[in-house]
Specification:
- The protein is an alpha+beta fold.
- It folds into three domains: 107 residues, Anticodon-binding domain (Rossmann fold, 3-Layer(aba) Sandwich); 237 residues, BirA Bifunctional Protein, domain 2 (2-Layer Sandwich), CATH 3.30.930.10; 128 residues, YbaK/aminoacyl-tRNA synthetase-associated domain (YbaK protein, Alpha-Beta Complex).
- Helix 2 runs antiparallel to helix 6.
- The longest helix has 21 residues.
- The protein binds one RNA strand of 77 nucleotides through helix 13 and helix 14.
Length: 575
RNA sequence: CGGGCCGUAGCGCAGUUUGGUAGCGCACCUGCUUUGGGAGCAGGGGGCCGCCGGUUCGAAUCCGGCCGGCCCGACCA
């Protein structure tokens, strides 16, 4: 017997009008369909239907975790400050870490993630290489005090996450589990019905991390990514090898100084002189942690990737407005020729073969054309600096990259010994020597995934759930509740479907047909069974498939079997 | 943290410029009619106009402070 519910007694406060605060489809529809309500900025209550869908996502995650041998547990949401001091993150994490004190003045934080707790838990019990590997996970509420919560569940402060942590003696073992996790994450996305890409992700300030993000493709996604038909994909910030689409200028010409009054941008410059933007070179100014001035040269049509800039120049930061005054350099006319003394000049690898550069002259309102590296100026460091973009060549095959936006729904990480070393979590290896654990961590944004699904599955009428995440699978909609012919037919269909193992709700409210149809489409029940006078008189009901809008007339006698079969088929397609 | 905007009934909004004691639509309650795509008519209930202070005979409206929210950016990932 599966779930059978009555609309009349379900707490589903649907809204006819769009809430003013919601911009994105997922946010708007979660509110309108009565699935969530806001309690404070970035903090939401899950109402019964929202909770049902959320729970289904959790269950899928749980099954996939269990399938690769990770074990479920539960850690505290409130964590003592001492552990965060040990790892160094009490000071490193910044204001996103929500800190609080108990009545005795002891310091705690709300867990934004659980590396500290898990490492502290395990370090006393896992003593030998014989105990390894171990993989543990939990599904739990997390808190990050986001500067600017927005987009409903996509960027909340309180959110539900599955986080897993693994401990290994060898890199091979870590790699093996990491691969298993990545496989599980792919299956989770598939079972949620998400169109997704695993992408190479930002390796961050701490180099050498191996990490993959799973991106649900969405117009409104926060992340920009590039991908190729060959299967390679990357977050633009992390795409290490952008293969530019424009050839180098290989014909040397004399350097020429030109007056360029008022031309501050590459676009202005290119237009005024009738050249392409990629035939100029853009120079961005930044500084090192020590305050040394840095010039970064990229092709005129390209954006600088700040993440890459930082790996080329440790501690790199772009200049603020005041810095331009401090260094006394003309914003809009910067270039590598005669740079201010002491400045470090870095140029993008893609400019190596270009011999005629159109660059700023470091004199207000003047530029040089035809400047040649080695003849007219020197480059101190060559590095990969540009932000990858659609149209670039694929670094693995001969293809051309395409662009997309995505929502990061999950990420897998090889942490190495970062936490085990700082927190003294070691085991005895085969020779009896103490070694820090090799660790991996793996997160799935559960509540965020719910929003991501809706971003991909909605239309002008509401949500059109994939059956695996729908709060309920079938809605039986009797058009006239009081009718003594219609009602018994509807009620027995409802009971029979439930007996057949289908999650079914009956809309027993004394509402007009239009209201019921509108709510059913808004909430997005995948299959809607319309029972009306007209049909029942002919011995039939009407089945509507929410996703496609297709309608089919079925004899009452065959309806249960047919619908149960359709649901079963839809389930197995996402199993 | 910068820039823009907003807090008036459960929701969406008008009223604020020009001060005179609060209104519209939806929702809710009652009755009648209606009943296959968000019904019609009639009647009704619901407001510390975000909070505090000031100006004034009188403040939703003017002034100051605070709180909360939304959008863009910065930040974060």
């Amino acid at each position: 017997m599966a779930v059978s519910l009555k609309m009349s007694s379900l707490y589903v406060p649907t809204l006819k009008e769009d809430p003013a605060e919601a911009e994105l489809a997922s946010h708007r529809l979660l509110l309108r369909a009565g699935m969530i309500r806001k309690a404070a900025a970035g903090i939401y209550t899950f109402l019964p239907l929202g909770w049902r869908s959320l729970h289904k996502i959790e269950q899928i995650v749980r099954e996939e975790m269990d399938a690769i041998g990770s074990q479920e547990m539960l850690m505290p949401a409130v964590q003592p400050a001492e552990l965060w001091h040990e790892s160094g993150r009490w000071s490193d994490y910044g204001p996103e870490l929500m800190r609080l004190k108990d009545r005795h003045g002891r310091e705690f934080c709300l867990g934004p993630t659980h590396e500290e707790i898990i490492t502290a838990t395990v370090r006393h019990e896992l003593r030998s290489y014989r105990d390894l590997p171990v993989s543990l996970y939990q599904i739990q509420v997390k808190f990050r005090d986001e500067v600017r919560p927005r987009f409903g569940l996509l960027r909340g402060r309180e959110f539900i996450m599955k986080d897993a942590y693994s401990f290994h003696a060898t890199q091979e073992s870590l790699q093996e589990h990491y691969d298993a996790m990545a496989g599980a994450y792919g299956r989770i996305c598939e079972r949620l019905g998400l169109e997704y890409r695993p992408v190479e992700a930002d390796s961050g300030q701490i180099g050498g991390k191996i990490t993959t993000e799973f991106m649900a493709l969405a117009e409104n996604g926060e992340a920009e990514l590039v991908y190729c038909d060959c299967g390679w994909a990357a977050n633009v910030e992390a795409a290490t090898t952008a293969v530019p689409r424009h050839p180098a200028v290989t014909e040397a010409v004399p350097m020429e100084k030109v007056h360029t009054p008022g031309l501050r941008t590459i676009a202005d410059l290119a237009q005024a002189f009738g050249v392409a933007e990629y035939d100029t070179v853009k120079t961005m100014a930044g500084k090192t942690a020590e305050g040394r001035l840095v010039f970064l040269c990229v092709p005129g049509d390209r954006e600088l990737n700040p993440v890459k800039a930082e790996s080329a120049v440790p501690g790199f930061e772009l200049l603020e407005e005041e810095d331009f005054k401090t260094f006394d350099i003309p914003k809009g006319s910067l270039g590598p020729v005669d740079p201010p003394s002491g400045a470090l000049v870095v140029a993008d690898d893609s400019l190596r073969d270009t011999v005629a550069w159109g660059v700023g002259a470091n004199i207000n309102d003047y530029h040089y054309f035809g400047a040649q590296p080695g003849r007219d100026f020197e480059i101190d460091v060559w590095a990969d600096l540009v932000l990858a973009a659609p149209g670039d060549g694929c670094p693995v095959c001969n293809g051309t990259l395409q662009g997309a936006r995505g929502i990061e729904v999950s990420q897998v990480f090889q942490l190495g010994t970062k936490y085990s070393e700082s927190m003294g979590a070691t085991y005895a290896d085969e020779d009896g020597n103490e070694q820090p654990f090799l660790m991996g961590c793996y997160g799935v944004g559960v509540s965020r995934s719910l929003a991501a699904v809706i971003e991909q599955y909605n239309d002008e009428n509401g949500i059109a759930w994939p059956v695996s995440v729908a709060p309920l699978e079938v809605a039986v909609v009797p058009l006239n509740v009081g009718d003594d012919i219609v009602w018994p037919v509807a009620e027995s269909l409802w009971r029979d479907l439930a007996s057949a193992g289908v999650e079914t709700v009956i809309d027993d409210r004394d509402e007009r047909a239009g209201v019921k149809f509108a709510d059913a489409d808004l909430i997005g029940f995948p299959y809607q069974v319309v029972v009306g006078k007209r049909g029942v008189a002919d011995g039939v009901i009407e089945l509507k498939v929410r996703a496609t809008g297709e309608r089919e007339t079925l004899p009452i006698a065959e309806a249960t079997e047919r619908i149960a079969a359709l649901v079963a088929q839809a389930r197995s397609a996402l199993a």
